[in-house]
Amino acid sequence: MGRVAAGVAFRMPSVVTATAYGGPEVLTVTDQAAAGPLGPGEARVAVRAAGVNPIDWKAYSGQFGTNPAALPMRLGAEAAGTVTEVGPGTAGPAGPLRPGDDVIAYRASGAYAAELVLPGSALVPKPAALDWAQAACLMVTGVTAWHVLAATGVRSGDTVLLHGGSGGVGTIAVQLAVARGATVLATASPARHDFLRGLGAIPVAYGPGLAGRVRAAAPGGVTAAADLIGTDEAIDVSLELVADRARIATIAGFGRGFAEKIKVLGGAPGADPGTQIRDAARLELTRLAADGAVRVSVAAAYPLTAVADAHRASMTGHAGGKLALIV
Ligand SMILES: NC(=O)c1ccc[n+]([C@@H]2O[C@H](COP(=O)([O-])OP(=O)(O)OC[C@H]3O[C@@H](n4cnc5c(N)ncnc54)[C@H](OP(=O)(O)O)[C@@H]3O)[C@@H](O)[C@H]2O)c1
Q1: Which pLDDT does position 35 carry in this prediction?
Q2: Residue range 39-51: average pLDDT?
Q3: Best probe residue, ligand 1, of 141, 148, 228, 232 (max atoms within 8 Å of C-beta)
Q4: By C-alpha distance, which of 104, 107, 103, 87 is closest to 43?
Q5: Distance of CA 39 from the midpoint of ligand 1 (Å)
Q6: What burial class does residue 100 get, using C-beta atoms within 10 Å of its C-beta: 0-12 exposed, 13-18 middle, 19+ buried?
Q7: Fewer CB within 10 Å: N-end or C-end of the chain?
Q8: Is any ligand 1 atom within 6 A of the Cβ of residue 251?
């Protein structure tokens, strides 16, 4: 949609909302009212891509309850784009921001949109080594993986078991743990094993018999484990193989995690949000990505108008990497 006002042509930016609770059929892409003038410390960002994460479709699925007052619901938490305008004194963690800067936006509530107005504190420089889709997909999984390794104290000499090692969070966690000098066992479906070997991990198929396969692959034992998927199997096998519960974490099995007194990480009530650790990780992740030390594996990119298809792919649990929306 375009229109001309005061001699200036501009594009009415698009935005994705969930108009009801349900499946991807409740998603709509509509025109977004242009945001007003910027306040101090704010920046306007023309979005090029947004990252898709399971929390995005969980939010409108109803599994966290249904609140009609929250509708229509904006979606998304991470994006990449270019700063088009800044308010007075706008700076990010890496310094002052200027129009023309290519940035990664996180935390960017409602990131599935063509235009975002955000505090500068949410914007870090986009590494040139990443394309728009990769840049948009780095942060949610990256800071979560960073938090997981910090919470479980993964360091050189450890043997760490990562359940869901082929997922968005797992793929970054594998790379960070390998870079720290740990031996990494990562669970995945067999089709993803070569990919994980390429990242430096020892792949192990999940499913019945998992503990035995891990013991065979790591005869010296496992010193830390993280459930990055939320299955009982992941938590049971972690408890069976890791002696110290302070070195077991979950980011998705909240009920079991609290009951078993392991580390429960994330935004759920009672969980450790790790806000400072995660915020500080952003610049570290951009540095590692710029150096090629962390790679972002994007399985597929969809136009913003195909957001429902992207969510259907994410909901399978086997997307094969991150999914991006191209604006
Ligand atoms: N707490 C937090 O802060 C936080 C942050 C980010 C994400 N999360 C949550 O963490 C979970 C993973 O997120 P993600 O972005 O990594 O998801 P994802 O990219 O969809 O990855 C899913 C992973 O689960 C594996 N998997 C699928 N079915 C499985 C099964 N039955 N048993 C074992 N593994 C299985 C997949 O392996 P294959 O594809 O190889 O089969 C893949 O490795 C989601 O629940 C998400 O909401 C939490």
Answers
A1: 81
A2: 98
A3: 228
A4: 87
A5: 38
A6: exposed
A7: N
A8: yes
Give CB contacts under 8 A, 24+ apart, made by 153-156: 153/224, 153/246, 153/247, 154/180, 154/182, 154/224, 155/180, 155/181, 155/182, 156/180, 156/181, 156/182
Measured from the CA of 320, which atom of ligand 1 is nearest?
A: 39
Q: How far apart are CA 232 and CA 315, in angstroms?
A: 19
Instruction: Provide the pLDDT confidence category of residue 13 given band limits of 50, 70 and 90.
Output: confident
- Taking only the tens place, the pLDDT of each residue in 262-285 is 999 999 999 999 999 999 999 999
Measured in Å, residue 230 CA sits from the centre of ligand 1 at 7
265 lines ligand 1 (CB under 6 A): yes
- pLDDT tens across 79-137, in order? 999 999 999 999 999 999 999 999 999 999 999 999 999 999 999 999 999 999 999 99
Q: Tell me the three state secondary structure of residue 29.
A: strand
Residue with tokens 């970054």: 172
- Indicate whether residue 120 lines ligand 1 (CB < 6 A): no
Q: How far apart are CA 162 and CA 180, in angstroms?
A: 14
